[in-house]
Design goal:
CATH class: Alpha Beta
Strand content: 25-35%
Number of domains: 1
Mean pLDDT: 92
Shape: globular
Radius of gyration: 17 Å
CATH architecture: Alpha-Beta Complex
Number of strands: 12
Structural class: alpha/beta
């Protein structure tokens, strides 16, 4: 069982969100409004069920983000990512502030539903049955064998099934060792979070799918705002 008193929640707020332009012309992606509230506000509202202790990681030029975080009704710590190198690198910046298991969510992902957190999981990642194959193509595909992760592929060109990897993760402290030893991707030059997940799988860590029953959306393009509003209605 997850212990809310010990569990921290790390939110990776990312960068400018150029693909959401022009909505991000004057504000960070995580502050784009959905139903009258910034994306980040919806995300914190969702994860308050698991934790009251949040760490927010974002680039130094995200104007207005830290000020908004101060208004949120949770304990918070802000970490500035001086040299952005992807999700895995951002997670590694929280190392000195983590004592036990922790949840990670991306600052542009919305949830309306419930996760299944297996009792035997030391690590995990969100998995949802996708209605739209394009959602898998812009996220990552997931293959399970006997209910356990076998393979994850970032932005796949071939779709093996309808399982879509989500921007939410459960880790314990040894994930930082896996981040440190995972080689940068030939495609991006960054340590990809999916490669870290594959390292956990290959190392026989207790990593499990966090099956999600509900609606999920990674807000990426302006047209996603309408989808987000419908999802949260």
């Amino acid at each position: 069982m997850l212990d809310k008193k010990k569990l921290k929640c790390v939110i990776i707020c990312g960068g400018k969100g150029k693909r959401l332009s022009p909505l991000t012309s004057n504000l960070p992606k995580s502050l784009v409004s959905v139903k009258g509230k910034p994306l980040l506000g919806h995300i914190v509202d969702y994860f308050k069920r698991f934790s009251d202790d949040f760490i927010f990681i974002f680039e130094k030029d995200n104007v207005g983000l830290e000020e908004f975080i101060k208004t949120l009704p949770v304990k918070s710590k802000c970490i500035i990512e001086e040299d952005p190198k992807g999700i895995a690198n951002a997670i590694s910046l929280a190392k000195d502030f983590i004592e036990d298991k922790f949840i990670v969510s991306l600052g542009d992902c919305l949830y309306n539903g419930d996760f299944d957190f297996p009792d035997d999981a030391d690590h995990g990642f969100g998995v949802v049955e996708a209605d739209n194959i394009d959602d898998i193509k812009r996220s990552y595909s997931v293959e399970l064998v006997d209910g356990k992760p076998y393979r994850v592929v970032e932005k796949p060109t071939e779709i093996p099934n309808n399982l879509c990897g989500m921007g939410v993760y459960l880790f314990n402290k040894n994930v930082f060792d896996h981040i440190k030893t995972t080689k940068p991707s030939d495609r991006t030059g960054k340590v990809e979070i999916t490669d870290v997940l594959q390292s956990l799988i290959s190392s026989k860590e207790k990593i499990r799918p966090l099956l999600f029953n509900g609606k999920y959306l990674n807000v990426t393009y302006p047209e996603d705002i309408k989808r987000a509003e419908e999802m949260l209605s």
